[in-house]
Structure formats: structure tokens, C-alpha cells
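Following the same procedure, sequence and fold were stored together, as reproduced here:

>
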Amino acid sequence: MTTLARSGAEVGPADTSGTDSREARAPAPQTGTEVVEFLAGEGRVLVLSMRKVANVVGYCALYEFEDLICELLEADRAAPLTEEGLEFSRRLYKLTRRLTTSPRVASAVTPRFGALKLEREYELFLPVFNHPHELFNLNAVQGWREKSRFAAAYIDEAWEARLPDYLLELLQPFDHIFLGVQGACEAVARLTGRPTTYLPMGVDALRFAPSPVAGPRLIDVCGIGRRSDVTHAALLDFAKREGRFYYYDTMRRSGGPRSGGAAVTFGVIDPREHRLLLSSLLKRSRYFIANRAWADTPGLTRGKDEIACRFYEGAAAGTVMLGEPPDTDDFRSEFDWPDAVVRTPFHAPDIADIIRELDRDPARTERIRTQSVYNALVRHDWSQRLGEILKVAGLPETAAFRTRRAELEAAAAAFRASAAA
């Protein structure tokens, strides 16, 4: 795979790790600049990615989704390499929008720095955003609406309390909007006037699923990301007193003005390598702490519980999940097998007792692992989410997509057969 840059940009090799095995195909001549990376696929679908300007660990799950889209659809991928010019344009657009109350005037006076100009037409334009504050990056691609038969946007986190109205207006030319959270769908549909559908997060289930003959799980408890200080202290004491292996984060949280209100932990060198590492850790973990999204900041969600990606990851890896799941019909539908999550308070000073009780019932924990892996393979792979987008966009499944489905079905059958033996 080759990085194709435009207008004197440096050309060099791109990352070839992970699942993206596409070979570069020279696209039709087009104009762009060194500020947008362009990876050529088959040319029927164009994905816009934020991975080069937002490489924080919390966004890697979404970049995993993009990797599978590009693999299964042989999609082209554009990714801004810098937000410097776009950030200046965004501020000017916001100021002009407020002064004139006219999106058209604001758009007309806003400069486009280094936008990639599309010369070919696409069946589907699919930008993938971590949060709505990234929407101005649409301006990194010139002519995307005119060159796309169907335009759909996927936004992972969109919290009603922090929806930027002036940026959501940029979604009005889209045919459909997909959100990774349920609570903001109605508000986004109202503000944009576009059909808005809840499309939950997923996981690369083939990557995370353990082998049917996997070895022992050497990590007793894995707890990463947002956490309760009370529960963390109890687990530290548990590990010290009983010699248990408790894997946890040790870095300090940090955030930034462009983080969309999200507290982040650290940046990653390569999202694919991070997902490989995470899947390896979880496949070797017995218990995994998983709580509803933003459990430590409930005011952000305004009481509307959402499903965090931890649940999909933990299930696919066959962990026994401990935590406080969302109290929603969506969660009960998505994770409807017994003990999908062993309900544990977010602040759980007695979590060691809960683990000891589970340890005394190996038949129960093995049943949990088997059902979780099976359900993740047949229901929660990213390809199944992509299938919903293809239906709305009126696009057929590709041969690679059908092969992926067959691989998931075979893996699920093999895992269930091994568990029954």
C-alpha cells in the first residue's frame, strides 16, 4: 500500500500492519496537497478518517471500523494530516456564522486550505467522526457532495448537552446520519433535518476472539480507561494481598480544547497495533471491568445511559465482565444472554468478594465466556454494522464482505463445538 500525496507532497510507504491488505491503485489525476493523505482502493467508496489528526487511544476502536470498511469494500481513504489551516477556517466560519446568521455567507467567505479535490465519482462517501467537533474537517475534501451518489456520516459520540449547532449544519447535505449513541439521535435529526439512525459500536470479533484451544488466562483482572477510585483501590488491595495479576492504567488523564469534551489518556503510534495489543490482553484476562459510557461523568449524558465499546471488546475476547451496564432496552437487546455482565456497582469496595464467589463456580464462568464469544461473532462484528450502512446506501455486498461473514460463522461454530466437547 502506498501513500499517494498531491501537489508536490512527499510520497512514502504507509503502514501495512493489521487487516488492511489493499494494494495501491493509481487513481485518476486529481488535485490536492500535502495536508491530506490519500490511500487508493477500488474507487467506489471514499472514507474520510480523522486518524492522523486525532490519534488518541480512545478513538482506536473507530479506526478499526474504518480498516474493515476499507478492506471489505476496497475503499479509498482520505485523512487530513494537519488541522492548522482547517482550524483557522473553522474559527472564521463560526465568527461569520454568528455575525451574519447565514451558513451560506459564512461558507462563502471561509478559505479552503489544501483541500483534496475529487476528480472521480463515488457510490458512497462515508466520513467517520469521533465526535461532532470534528465535522469541519469535511472541508478537507472539495466537491464530496457533487462527486458522491450517496453520502452517509458516522459519528461515534454525540452528546445532546454538547452539540455544536453551527457544525451540525454541515451535515445537511448528507443523505443519512448514523450515531454510535442513541440519546442524541432525535436532537441531531431535528438540527440537521436528515434521517438519523442509531448504529451501535462493534468490534473486530475475529481479532478479539480467543482460540477454541486457548491457553490459561494469566491476567486475573483487567481494568482500563475510566474507572472508580473506590473499585481501583479495592482491586489494588486484592492484588497485593492474594498475589493476583491486576492490569490497569498508570498514565495521567489529559484533555484538550478540541477533544469534544472527552477526557483522553494518551496518543498511540499506530491504532492497529494498539488494537492488536488490547485484543491480546483481553484474550488472556479472566475478568474485565466494563461500565456504561462516561460512568464517571454522568452529567454529560443527562441521564441517558449509553453502551461503551468495552462491552463489545470484553464479550468478543471471552472475558467475564464486571460492572454497571446501561439501564436501557438497547443494552438488554444487544447483550441478552445470561450473565453477559455480572452486575457490579461502579463504586465497588467489595469487588474482591464478587470475584472470589465467581471463582468458586467455574461452570458459570465458562458458560459466560462461551456465550459471550459466540454472540460477539454472530452479532457484534464491525462488518455487521457496515452491512446496515450498505442497506441504507443501496450498495450490494462485496465478495470480501461475504467471505468475512462466512469466516465469522465458521469461527462461531468452531468455538461452540469446542466448548461442548
Notes: Residues 205-420 form a domain with the Rossmann fold fold (CATH 3.40.50).
